[in-house]
Amino acid sequence: MAKLFKRFLTDADGATMVEYGVIASLIVGAILAAVTPVTNILTTAWNTLSATMGG
Question: What is the pTM (predicted TM-score) of this model?
Answer without folding.
Answer: 0.55
